[in-house]
Design goal:
Chain A is mainly α. Chain A is about 80% helix and about 0% strand. Classes of the chains: A mainly alpha, B mainly alpha, C mainly alpha.
């Protein structure tokens, strides 16, 4: 449990999370959300929760991102806020 | 000053988790676009899961899979050698519930778009208020 | 809306930070979360169920009721998506697009004649068409069977390594979604149509609940896998291990079917004809 790695990954998670809700392009927000999920999975693997990290890698960074992109495809892509 | 520094160092990761929860909560309240609200909901859910996982950690303990195999006899399993598996079990359920909620929320968003041609909350409210006085 | 939001967020955040001052220090083995029931799970899981992966043992055996209702939650999400989005009336579009495979020419036919032009040389493509990409199609054709094999490995080895029913089911569903993205959704609907997906959703829950009901029929409590040792001819510990495997298979089937159905509904906005 090397605290330097954990600190860097936590910082990346925070940056991806704030980025996902700030960008004005919804497709970019969906992809940033996929990156956020991947960083979370890494964090949980560092903490020793291997089952949970496996589930989040397949569910969050896989299927969740695809569902977001499909929904953005069927609705509009630009947003004003 | 030293006590404050010890306090910050021992609680720093809890505070970063709380910061992440607050990012998700802010997105759910303040953003007008529905997809951004859904993203905020998911960020809040994963931050809560991170909080639970960090409760179950133990110093100098290994992952919760009992060492087994051909050359390893069954010594007694000590509870202090393995990370607490109970939060992991509960959080597996939480992740799967999160993705189910995401699917239904996105289906609702697509239906709203088909009905109102927009996903911004203020435009939807304006359309609803245009319709409502006529109905009553 | 931004200023009240920031105010609320700060108030909540500071309340939560105040409450963390009472927490036990990080990684303490004597923390209240690690003291009451979890030492029993860690020390007795291998002896009582012969499953080394403690998380799988607790998930499917000690807390099996929770997992049953979680499977029902996933099933409900699939059914809710069906009710929200599905349009059953077939709306024929005004024009169709076809691609001539040997030369790559795309045709658009307005006022389509019947029978449709579906021979070995012409394939039907979506109205929002993309150019034919050989690299993506071939790469995904190679990836899909290996990822399905890996998903079956993950389900089967949930006892000994990280994995289990959920993870394997999601990877199986993701492989079918990959096939639907790289080729047409029509090609994927031919192989794995909506009726099969909805049937499999229910079949997984039936397997899980049926294992519990089999335990009742043999005289023990609901979801008590030790009672299955009569039909299996093994002792109670091996029967528990087998019961865990059965419910993991049920969970995997449901999760795969729901993921595929969610993708079909969302990407085609309910019409199930063409999509991403």
């Amino acid at each position: 449990m090397i605290w330097q790695i954990e600190f860097v990954v936590l910082l990346m998670v925070l940056i991806c999370g704030i980025g996902a809700i700030t960008v004005k392009d919804l497709l970019g927000a969906a992809i940033l959300f996929g990156a956020y999920s991947f960083m979370m999975c890494l964090l949980w693997a560092i903490m020793g929760a291997v089952d949970v990290a496996f589930t989040e890698a397949s569910v969050g960074a896989g299927v969740s991102t695809v569902l977001f992109v499909a929904a953005v495809f069927r609705t509009s892509r630009r947003t004003s806020d | 000053m030293n006590a404050l520094l010890t306090l910050i160092v021992s609680r720093a990761n809890y505070w970063m988790t709380i910061a992440l929860m607050m990012v998700g909560l802010y997105a759910m309240i303040a953003r007008k676009n529905l997809v951004k609200k859904i993203i905020g909901m998911n960020i809040l859910q994963t931050a809560v899961i991170l909080f639970f996982i960090s409760i179950g950690a133990k110093k100098d303990a290994t992952i919760p899979i009992v060492r087994h195999g051909a050359g390893i006899h069954n010594h007694a399993v000590q509870a202090a050698d393995y990370i607490n598996p109970l939060p992991h079990v509960l959080m597996l359920t939480a992740i799967v519930v999160a993705v189910s909620t995401l699917g239904v929320a996105l289906a609702l968003a697509i239906r709203i778009f088909q009905q109102y041609q927009t996903l911004e909350e203020d435009e939807i409210l304006a359309q609803l208020q245009d319709k409502a006085p006529g109905k009553e | 809306m931004k200023t009240p939001a920031i105010l609320i967020v700060f108030v909540f955040g500071s309340l939560l930070v105040l409450s963390t001052l009472d927490f036990p220090p990080w990684g303490d083995p004597a923390a209240p979360a690690s003291v009451h029931v979890s030492p029993h799970y860690i020390e007795q899981a291998m002896a009582e169920t012969s499953v080394p992966n403690i998380v799988t043992a607790v998930l499917a055996d000690y807390r099996g009721y929770d997992t049953l209702f979680e499977t029902i939650v996933i099933f409900t999400a699939g059914v809710a998506c069906l009710f929200l989005l599905r349009i059953f009336r077939r709306i024929e579009p005004e024009s169709r697009m076809y691609r001539h495979i040997p030369t790559g020419i795309t045709l658009r036919i307005t006022k389509p004649v019947s029978p449709p032009l579906e021979t070995a040389e012409f394939e039907r493509i979506d109205l929002m068409w993309v150019p034919y990409d050989l690299v993506v199609k071939t790469a995904c054709r190679l990836i899909v069977p290996f990822s399905q094999l890996f998903a079956l490995y993950v389900i089967a080895h949930g006892h000994h390594s990280p994995g289990g029913g959920f993870q394997g089911g999601v990877i199986l569903g993701a492989s079918i979604i990959l096939y639907a993205i790289s080729n047409n959704m029509r090609a994927s609907l031919v192989r794995f149509n909506e009726k099969l997906a909805v049937l499999l959703c229910g079949l997984g829950v039936l397997i899980y609940a049926g294992t519990g009901a089999a335990a009742i029929l043999l005289g023990a409590n609901y979801l008590d896998y030790g009672a299955l040792s009569e039909i299996l001819g093994a002792d109670a510990i091996a029967a528990r291990s087998f019961g865990i495997l059965m419910v993991e298979i049920g969970v995997g089937i449901t999760v795969m079917a729901v993921m595929v159905h969610l993708y079909y509904s969302l990407a085609s906005a309910g019409r199930h004809d063409e999509g991403l």
